[in-house]
From TrEMBL:
It comes from the Bacteria. The keyword Transmembrane applies. Signal peptide: none annotated. It holds the Pfam family Trans_reg_C. The keyword Signal does not apply. This is OmpR/PhoB-type domain-containing protein. Residues 5-103 bind DNA. PROSITE patterns: OMPR_PHOB (PS51755). CDD domains: trans_reg_C. Residues 5-103 form the OmpR/PhoB-type domain. It comes from Pseudoalteromonas rubra.
């Protein structure tokens, strides 16, 4: 099928496939690559009806036909071309047949003779461009300053939100017994808080200066309850019946007009292990519910931000990449704004400045999203990432966590093997059990440490770039070397010589999944997670050759003829055999020699299961409640099974106020 690949014109609109841009006379719209590919196919056969199945096979070759995926791309094209579905002028829908692009296609004009008026216009545009460039480079950099504590107690305070008039702040406070209460504090009278205790609050949002909407953690119904501020306290009013069939309501957010946005568990998958999520819109007047987007279990919604024109979504996809999306609630079109965010970003919309603010929850990093969808760094003095963020005019309210994480093993569950007042985690024990490598924030940012026979830990990777993430170290079976990923590179550490070297891998890498070794030549292979693509990089350490393996699954075991991958809540072998837990979720899966270990968490209980390479279950044992993340294991000379895990302790968070200046 003919497909245009060079720039072309549709009704005075310039289409640039190489840049994925649609250029109008008064601005430029960006398209995601698949939408541009669809436009090029339609423009390759103008004024011709092309069947839906043909278009789908061209864009997604080899996949099962899905009309909704094609409809989403058509909606994106109409929006970029400023066309209408009700009265189209460019893209037409032909019921039960397909789509057509009704327009004359031409090449961009590149004439050599320029009339005087055109020259004058060119000089005017050049002058205007110079003025704009001068303004961009001369204007001050956005700055976050004057940070001070709004709360500072031994309890965990989080999810702070300004009232619509900015005169009060509501937040959640969790006591030592894990009970959560809603607190409303008037800024002009901070000594008299209003409290709503012990109602199982998961989330909330302001409706008016006197009303809030609360999402409860009720297991029987997804309750949304209106509450009202009075002189005597916070008084519950009534629950909204429209959401009673939903579960796990979170990211509650007031939108424009009577709209409310939130995330919930997909009602059709609540009692299954697929665990899909949905982003929904609720109209508080008509109580109409609308599904804006459905997401698989491997997609974690980090945050939402409502604007007058749509909804921004910070999405952590396949446990690898943070994407920024924009949803148009009317057309249900989804636009990818940025597909390669390096972190897990919380969002805050500034109606005062008409800008989106992005704050990383993993490391101290702040950006603003400009009109051209470019991220601009905000100058700041933050020392950590943030849990959440909220804006009123130039005031930014954030939550910042402080926590202690210690490392234990099943031989001494009552005494931490690695403990400090900092975060020590991702412990990786050597095959002999003699040494343990772990990540620690003892210096204020992640570094890699090694302890030998429980002696004083030493730093083996200083993390000079102060990256927010260092992956779990993977040992060679001979215990003489280990590899790990940081700052999108893969490092190898020699235990005997203490030599650290970066491997010559061109692709950006976020973690090392598995180290395949054998006595045969050419079988020393690393399986690595690509940092920006849903794929695995296979790296031969002898030849230096790399191979890109498509697909989102994580390789947890591999041999010359066999492998096992982990995706969502399923383990799948190369032979076609698969395994899923009967109940609960896979928290972590990894291999030790010829054994596959799987940590499964379920309400009230968790287990550690042991499989052979063909996914035959060999054993299972209950895990202590404190074993929040099993990171590694080894078999002793007496064949005793010893596993290492991290336990989060002394978690605290406080609210902080900052000044945002543009």
């Amino acid at each position: 099928m003919e497909k245009l690949t060079h720039a072309f014109v549709i009704n005075n609109i310039i289409i640039d496939p190489q840049r994925n841009q649609v250029q109008h006379s008064d601005g430029v719209n960006s398209l995601e690559p698949k939408a541009m590919a669809l436009l090029c196919v339609l423009a390759g056969q103008p004024n011709t009806v092309i069947a839906q199945e043909t278009l789908y096979e061209t864009i997604w070759p080899g996949r099962v036909f899905s009309p909704s995926s094609l409809q989403r791309l058509i909606a994106l094209l109409r929006k970029a071309l400023r066309d209408s579905s009700k009265s189209p002028e460019i893209i037409f829908t032909h019921a039960k047949q397909g789509y057509s692009l009704e327009a004359a296609i031409s090449k961009p004009q590149t004439g050599t003779k320029t009339p005087a008026k055109t020259l004058l216009s060119v000089f005017s545009m050049l002058f205007l461009t110079l003025v704009i460039v001068a303004y961009i480079f001369s204007r001050p950099q956005p700055t976050l300053s004057d940070t001070q504590a709004f709360t500072f107690t031994a309890l965990a305070e989080f999810n702070g939100q300004f009232s619509p008039d900015g005169k009060a702040i509501a937040f959640l406070r969790q006591s030592a017994d894990k009970q959560t209460e809603l607190v409303v504090r008037q800024l002009e009278n901070p000594g008299q808080d209003l409290l709503l205790p012990d109602v199982q609050i998961r989330d909330f949002t302001w409706l008016t200066n006197k009303q809030l909407l609360i999402a409860q953690t009720d297991s029987e119904a997804g309750k949304l309850i209106r509450v009202r501020l009075t002189q005597s306290g916070i008084q519950p009013q009534h629950s909204l019946p429209a959401t009673r069939h939903l579960r796990n309501i979170r990211h509650l957010l007031k939108g424009p007009g009577s709209a409310i946005y939130f995330v919930a568990a997909h009602p059709d998958t609540v009692k299954t292990d697929t665990r899909q999520s949905v982003i929904m819109q609720l109209d508080l007047i008509s109580f109409e519910l609308k599904t804006l987007m459905t997401l698989p279990a491997a997609h974690d919604i980090v945050d939402l931000a409502a604007t007058p024109d749509g909804l921004y979504v910070s999405l952590f996809e396949n446990r690898k990449v943070n994407k920024l999306l924009n949803i148009d609630p009317d057309s249900l079109s989804v636009n990818v704004i940025n597909a390669e965010l390096d972190g897990r970003y919380k969002l805050a919309w500034s109606s005062h400045h008409n800008r989106l603010i992005l704050l990383d929850s993993l490391k101290p990093a702040v950006f603003t999203l400009e009109a051209n969808n470019q991220l601009v760094t905000v100058k700041h003095a933050l020392s950590t990432g943030v849990l959440d963020a909220n804006l009123y005019q130039d005031k930014l309210l954030t939550s910042r966590a402080h926590q202690t994480i210690n490392v234990f093993n099943n031989q001494s569950p009552d005494a931490a093997l690695i403990h400090s007042k900092y975060e020590d985690y991702l412990a990786s024990v050597s095959p002999s059990g003699r040494s343990v490598v772990f990540v620690s924030n003892r210096s204020g940012y992640p570094q890699l440490y090694m302890t030998v026979q429980n002696n004083q830990p030493e730093v083996i990777f200083t993390n000079p770039g102060r990256e927010d993430f260092i992956s779990r170290a993977i040992w060679h079976p001979n215990a003489r070397q280990l590899v790990f990923a940081a700052d999108k590179k893969v490092y190898r550490f020699d235990v005997a010589t203490r030599e650290l070297s970066a491997l010559p891998i061109a692709q950006p890498i976020t973690r090392v999944e598995y180290w395949q070794t054998s006595d045969l030549p050419g079988t020393d292979v690393l399986y690595l997670t690509h940092a920006t693509q849903t794929s695995t990089v296979k790296y031969d350490t002898d030849s230096g050759e790399t191979e890109l393996l498509p697909g989102p699954e994580h390789f947890i075991y591999a041999s010359n003829t066999h492998h096992i991958g982990w995706q969502d809540n399923t383990l799948r072998a190369a032979t076609g055999v698969s395994w899923q837990p009967g109940s609960g979720q896979i928290r972590h899966a990894f291999s030790v020699g010829e054994r596959i270990l799987v940590q499964v968490t379920a309400p009230g209980a968790q287990r550690l299961l042991e499989f052979d390479p063909h996914l035959n279950l060999l054993s299972q044992q209950p895990l202590p409640k404190s074993a929040q993340f099993v990171s590694s294991a080894f078999y002793s000379e007496q064949n005793a099974f010893i596993y290492y895990y991290s336990h989060w302790q002394n978690i605290d968070s406080d609210l902080m106020l900052s000044q945002l200046t543009f």
